[in-house]
Amino acid sequence: MQDVVDAKDLGRALCVITGASRGFGRAAAVQISERLRPGSALLLVARSGEDLRMLRADLAASKAGKAGLTVECVVADLGVKEGVDGVVETLLKLRSSEDFDHLLLVNNAGSLGTTRFAKTFTDMSEVNSYLAFNVSSPLCLTAGVLGAFPRRDGLRRTVVNLSSLCALQAFPSWVLYCSAKAARDMTFRVLAEEDPDLRVLNYAPGPLDTAMQKEARTNTSDDRLRNSFADMFAEGQLLTCEASCAKLMTLLLKDEYTSGAHVDFFEI
Length: 268
Hints:
Layout: E1 13-18, H1 23-33, E2 41-46, H2 49-61, H3 63-66, E3 70-75, H4 81-95, E4 102-107, H5 124-148, E5 156-162, H6 175-194, E6 199-204, H7 211-219, H8 223-234, H9 241-254, E7 261-264
Parallel strand pairs: 1-2, 1-4, 2-3, 4-5, 5-6, 6-7
Helix pairs in contact: 1-9, 4-5, 5-6, 7-8
């Protein structure tokens, strides 16, 4: 077992965040940067180069940026091999430049996908494309990152998967999203079993006020489910990304969760 993390910070860390350009990923980049020691580095990954550049500028102007935080951005489609490989290649360059004591990977990137009833999915290529980005990508990226940073004395390694209630509960017309989230949870549960040296967390951030939620309350095929999302929005029941990310920071700093566990925002 590794020593309990100092609750004051995340160490001199190299942190990789996917889907970092907006929403929860952006909030994670900001809040993690505030909890890193000097000499740390952030590797931010997203499809939108413009949004990444804006985030990088904001971080450079922050207290952490002025203290010397290194921020690298990779514009990549993680649904294809070239995208994942590009992230790992950039990571290897950062590895050689600093002596880090903590590797933190936040697998945040994901998509809602087409919200139709299961019996309408007859095109395997459509399903495979969705699963490539939402299931294969985080597995392969995690494998590449851990391969670049094998176990060694003095190095803590933490892997976070952005999960969902949908990993545990079936929602009508959300067969793609529920299936992907369930598969991702199991992927990282297996990883935790295979490598007790790792700290692995499946974090369900709760109902967030994001573009994905707007998509859900607009396009979901099941009327009851779509209306429930619309009601949550109208009644102000959605969470901000910043509030949910603050709970994740608490989990990471205390480091008391069971590795591989599924932990929901409302359980903290």
